[in-house]
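Pasting two entries for a bug report.
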Amino acid sequence: MNTTQNESAQKKTLDLSKIEQVLEKYKNARGALIPVLQAVQGHYGYLPEPVVDLIAERLRISAHEIVGTATFYAQFHLKPRGQHIVKVCCGTACHVKGAKKVLQKISETLEVSTGMTTKDNAFTLEEVACLGACSLAPVMMVDEDLHGKLAPDTVGTVIKEIKGAGTSS
């Protein structure tokens, strides 16, 4: 499937009705890009390319400007993300207490590189500068749950618990 066919197939599978409502709400509002992107990401979990193209057309700005804005702000994502977001702090306190080894072990356990999503779309692994829990260093956050005082030999257990919890729902 070439790129044009792939984009066409993706457009067919995307429900644009909610996005149409958002675009209608902001059609004449100056500076509406950020709230529009937030609404789109809230609906899809990321900013799909066909939707970026639609936003560009409706807000009369270039898709390049939208992508530039989206890549500037850490809150926006241009690729699908996992069901669970794993953020490993590598700030000073966590770094000193072995965060890189913890990150490496999580990467091995999930079989995914930092910044990537597992093949089953269950986890996205991210390295962050600070989670604000220095007294618990090294720390990671899985979705909204903070896990502290980690060691490479304990993170596998945390991941297994999360995987186990996901199968019982």
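Entry 2 (this is the one that rendered wrong in the viewer):
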Amino acid sequence: MGVRRIIQKLKLRYGSQTMVIRTLRAMGVRIGERCRIYTSHFGAEPWLVRIGDHVCVSNDVTFVCHGLTWPFQDKHDSLTSFGTIEIRDNCQIGVRATILPNVTIGPNAVVGACSVVTKDVPPGSVVAGNPARVIGTIEEHEQKCLARHIDIPDDPEDVRRVLEKHFWEDEA
């Protein structure tokens, strides 16, 4: 692995969000505005990934822009298979999701943690599983999030106190 690639990996792992996005753009990923990206797994073809505005890509999400052609290499010396991945505006991709080639997600969609996205995700839907399937709408997800909402203060010590009281109150 070259020095340049090692530096890129360090920036992606330890850099600020501004540095992560700048590094990914330099690698060829097209990224919109107001995004949060917490993964470095963009494979060998990062220029085949497009991310819209206001997208959150959680930790350890993997983008796979190529197919599996190895078993055919003896018969077809130069056989290749590539595809693009596009995440449209206002989406969230859950922890450890895997997105395969030739997939478009959203807009206004959520991909659940550990999901394997093998086909397009309809706008305004929530998908989960392996393979990922529609499990609800973004409106239903919003209602679930509102029902679980906890008012969190700005001070970190107050956050701990509020959450411990909320979740462990019965143990006192």
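Dev reply: Rendering is fixed now. As a check, the viewer should reflect this: The mean pLDDT is 94.
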